[in-house]
Automatic annotation (TrEMBL):
CDD domains: GATase1_IGP_Synthase. Pathway: Amino-acid biosynthesis; L-histidine biosynthesis; L-histidine from 5-phospho-alpha-D-ribose 1-diphosphate: step 5/9. The active site is at C85 (nucleophile), H189, E191. It comes from the Bacteria. Its EC number is 4.3.2.10, 3.5.1.2. This is Imidazole glycerol phosphate synthase subunit HisH. It catalyses: L-glutamine + H2O = L-glutamate + NH4(+); 5-[(5-phospho-1-deoxy-D-ribulos-1-ylimino)methylamino]-1-(5-phospho-beta-D-ribosyl)imidazole-4-carboxamide + L-glutamine = D-erythro-1-(imidazol-4-yl)glycerol 3-phosphate + 5-amino-1-(5-phospho-beta-D-ribosyl)imidazole-4-carboxamide + L-glutamate + H(+). GO terms for molecular function: glutaminase activity; imidazoleglycerol-phosphate synthase activity; lyase activity. One of its GO terms (biological process) is L-histidine biosynthetic process. It is found in: Cytoplasm. Its main location: cytoplasm.
Length: 209
């Protein structure tokens, strides 16, 4: 039987593109769902996210039972989890976009606006950029070096450097990927990153944290 993968629909993700990318990576049973029961039964979970932190947070928290289902699956039963863009930022303790908004708190840190320290640097950070591994990447065998597509104005400031699996440079260091145990989040968009992104999703489908 094909392994069930829950792609969470909370009104804030590029679902069609992520769904197609997962299928291109070899997934056989991807379910786009807002049903906490299906999330509890999934063998892998993907949380996409596009837009403002607060709006994404409100959308996810507004689904009855969803946060409890995610907590049970990801934290208690250690189901492999991938967060994409704002789906990655929601792993933080809080986001500071248009106010202060509580995150899932699975990877300690805050989400801050990218500061323009160089007038030649544009915000949002948009387009292709390098993904460079950190000294801690060996702890998480999912991320590899390469080039990926980014589109964001806020970035994840992790409290513990050991949770940072990869960085990129946009007028200074920006976290490109975080990872802890069975949880990985990427600031870039695998579904827009061509071969690099598909390869990442292939590894996620085979990942046994």
């Amino acid at each position: 039987m094909a392994e069930a993968i829950a792609l969470i629909d909370y009104g804030a993700g590029n679902l069609h593109s992520v769904y197609n990318a997962l299928n291109a990576a070899g997934a056989e049973h991807v379910t786009v769902t807002a049903d906490p029961r299906l999330v509890r039964g999934a063998k892998r979970i993907v949380l996409p996210g596009v837009g403002a932190f607060g709006a994404c947070r409100e959308g996810l928290w507004s689904i009855p039972g969803m946060i409890e289902a995610l907590q049970d699956s990801v934290i208690e039963r250690r189901v492999p989890f991938l967060g994409i863009c704002v789906g990655m930022q929601l792993l933080a303790d809080r986001g500071l976009e248009h106010g202060t908004h509580e995150g899932l708190g699975w990877i300690p840190g805050e989400v801050h606006k990218i500061e323009r320290t160089d007038p030649n640097i544009r915000v949002p950070h948009m387009g292709w950029n390098d993904v460079a591994l950190t000294a801690h990447h060996d702890d998480h065998d999912l991320i590899e070096e390469g080039e990926a597509y980014f589109l964001h104005s806020y970035h994840f400031a992790a409290q513990d450097g050991a949770d940072v699996a990869a960085m990129t440079d946009h007028g200074g260091g920006i976290v490109a990927a975080v990872a802890r145990d069975n949880i990985v989040g990427v600031q870039f968009h695998p579904e827009k990153s061509q071969a690099y992104g598909i390869d990442l999703l292939k590894r996620f489908l085979e990942w046994k944290p």
